[in-house]
Amino acid sequence: MKPIRTRGRPRWRLLAAAGVAGTLSAVAVTYGMPYAFADSLLSDTFEDGNSNGWSKSGGSWSVVTDGSLVYRQSGQSSDARTLVGQTTWADYGVQARVKPTGFNGANRHVGVVARAQSSSNYYALVVTSGGAVQLIKRAGGDPVALGTGSAAVPVGNWATLRLDAVGSSLRGYVNGNLVVQATDSGFSSGRAGLATSYASASFDDVEVATVTGPPPTTGPTTGPTLPPTEPPLDPGAPPIGFASVNALGQNGTTGGAGGPTVTVDTPAELLAAISQSGPLNIRVSGMIALPGPMHDVTSDKTIVGVGASSGITGGGLNIGLPASDVTSPPADAVHNVIVRNLNFRNTVDDAVNVQMYSHHVWIDHNDLSLGYDGLIDIKRGASYVTVSWNHTHHHTKNMLLGHDDSNAAQDTGYLKVTYHNNWFDRTPQRNPRVRFGEPVHVFNNYFVYNTDVGVACQLNSGCVVEGNYFEDVEVPWSISYAGSRGRLVARNNVLAGTSEAGDSGGTVQEPSTYYRYSVADPNTIKSVVMAGSGTGKIGL
After folding, report:
1. End-to-end CA distance of the chain
2. Residue 322 in contact with residue 342, Cβ under 8 Å?
3. Which of 97, 128, 144, 150 could form a disulfide with 204 if both were Cys (CB 3.0 to 4.6 A apart)?
């Protein structure tokens, strides 16, 4: 696996310094921490094709393909565990996507492990063959149930399990909802892991991170408290920013509102739905593999993932007419499109491409990584777009705004875009890279380990960068990136572990002349964005 550079150091070395043995690939989907977040200890999606660093006990463990690469235990004739990390790990949460594939009899289970002293001494959060969720303790003998909740995970279905161990408090979450909790002081530290008992299962997207502080005040059936600045969980809540503006004959962005709703789970169904004329709400169920490169989306569409694990791999979405050199909006420009709660993986071109004077587009609460070109590119006269609450990671050329240095005729006066509450997670450049657009509003985002530049404002573009949290970013913002100057106003940003802010200057149109918004305290943005961005957060 080629290491991801992090301010001159390979990412795998940083993880190893935190106590991870071997070379581990990085996490794809992250749920909000119910306690206060501190540091990531480990993440592994198995996309590197191996399970280096994991020690197995019993069963038959291997990395196989199940939509994506996953870690599978295929035996059903014994108990099986696989552990990772250090026995000194104390207060932390372990999370993984888990899919039971078979149970050999009653009272069998699969789940995640915390504070493992050995392969027979640990805590675990498990789903059972009887449809229950249990917190169990194993101390050399048979497992003992410390608490039981209700959240059935049928065979063949994915669920995200998370076990937090802080002090003597143990708390178990299924798909982000707190379903079981218990108190026990038997094990104060230990390794993380995965476990099956006379059962087979697939595991993916494993993450271990430290958590501290008191538990949340929510009860066992209400789930963790949402971040204070997160929009309401009503899927029909309107966007903030340029996608909310009344302009170009469109009052805000409503997507498929007023149209029928369809659920798609095959490539043919998805492609037919996005090309249909008229308003339509499209629910994407599961990961759908599309051929590359990109597929056209027509006006008045809402495309939304079901749960936290649905999305698109291989191909991407093109919101706009085919590229041309026209310099005025066509009468049939694509408009009023919503893309939410989707995972985008391994796209052979852009994951989401917005172009050719398309307008009123809302790209919200998605998880995007491992693409070939851009994750979210907006260009060729597109405008009135909001990009919000997305988690982008494991990708270099993150977000482009503006097609080319020579495209002034098509882009000047357009490319009005709002970026808020996004997590730019170790994406070296284009966070975003801006040409010609004004105003481009970048507020309340979390930037971390961007080793080239955060916001690059070029070619007479105008950017307002405010209320963001920059952590260990090489150059948080610049108006002279690649030699062509833009204009940028920076205010009320937090710089953590960053010695120089970068250059700014000039006057820029104020976003408040277009829409109302409020900027949260930038000191809270790291935790708020990490908890609230990505998929599985909007109740769909």
Report:
1. 35
2. no
3. 97
SS (H, E, C) 113-125: EEEEEECCEEEEE
Neighbours of 251 (CB within 10 A): 12
Phi, psi of 410 (to 5 degrees): -85, -30
Q: How far is CA 88 from the centre of its chain?
A: 29
Beta strands in 216-370, from DSSP E residues, in sequence order: 246-247, 250-251, 261-264, 280-284, 287-289, 294-296, 301-305, 311-313, 316-319, 335-340, 343-345, 352-354, 359-364, 367-369
The predicted-structure confidence for 450-469, as pLDDT tens digits, reads as follows: 999 999 999 999 999 999 99
Residue 239 neighbours by CB under 8 Å, 6+ apart: 252, 253, 362, 364, 386, 388
Alpha helices in 347-505 (DSSP H): 408-411
* DSSP character at residue 298: -
Query: Which candidate in 11, 191, 430, 487 is catalytic?
Result: 430
Residue range 172-186: mean pLDDT, rounded: 86
**Those residues with Cβ within 8 angstroms of residue 382's Cβ, 6 or more apart along the chain or in another chain:** 319, 320, 354, 355, 356, 357, 358, 359, 361, 414, 415
For residues 151 and 179, the answer to whether their CB atoms sit within 8 Å is yes
The half-sphere exposure of 417 on its side-chain side, counting CA atoms within 13 A, is: 36
Q: Residue for token digits 């490539």? A: 267
SS3 call for 501: coil
- What is the pTM for the complete model shown? 0.60
pLDDT value at position 540?
A: 61
Q: How far is CA 325 from the centre of its chain?
A: 35
- Walk across the sheet containing 55-57 and list its strands: 55-57, 79-84, 191-197, 109-118, 121-128, 132-139, 144-150
Using one digit for the tens of pLDDT, what is the confidence trace for 254-313?
999 999 999 999 999 999 999 999 999 999 999 999 998 999 999 999 999 999 999 999
Q: What is the CB neighbour count within 10 angstroms for residue 6? A: 18
**Whether the Cβ atoms of residue 459 and residue 480 lie closer than 8 Å to each other:** no
Which pLDDT does position 68 carry in this prediction? 80
d(CA 198, CA 454): 49
Quick check: 49 and 24 in contact, CB under 8 A? Answer: no
For residue 15, what pLDDT is reported? Answer: 35
How, if at all, do strands 61-66 and 462-466 pair? unpaired
Does residue 430 carry a catalytic annotation? yes
Buried b (16+ CB within 10 A) or exposed e, 338-361: bbbbbbbbbbbbbbbbbbbbbbbb
CA 459 to chain centre: 31
What's the one-letter identity of residue 280? L
If pLDDT is split at 50, 70 and 90, which confidence band does 13 have? very low
Rounded CA separation 190/139 (Å): 13
Look at residue 209 in the predicted model and tell me its pLDDT.
84
Q: What domains lie within the chain, and their CATH numbers?
A: 5-212 (2.60.120.560), 243-532 (2.160.20.10)
What's the mean pLDDT when you consider all of the chain?
A: 87
